[in-house]
Amino acid sequence: MAARGGALLKYLRVNVEALPPTRNPNNNGLFGLSFNAICRRFSEEVRGTFLDKSEVSDRVVNVVKNFQKVDPSKVTPNAHFQNDLGLDSLDTVEIVMALEEEFQFEIPDNEADKINTISLAIDFIASHPQAK
Amino acid sequence: MGPSTGGRTRLSGMQKQVLSLYRGFLRATRSKSPEDRREIESFVSAEFRRNSKQVDRKNFIYIEYLLRRGKKQLEQLNSPDTVGLSSMNVTFSETENPKN
Question: What this chain does, per the record (chain A) (predicted)?
Answer without folding.
Answer: Carrier of the growing fatty acid chain in fatty acid biosynthesis.
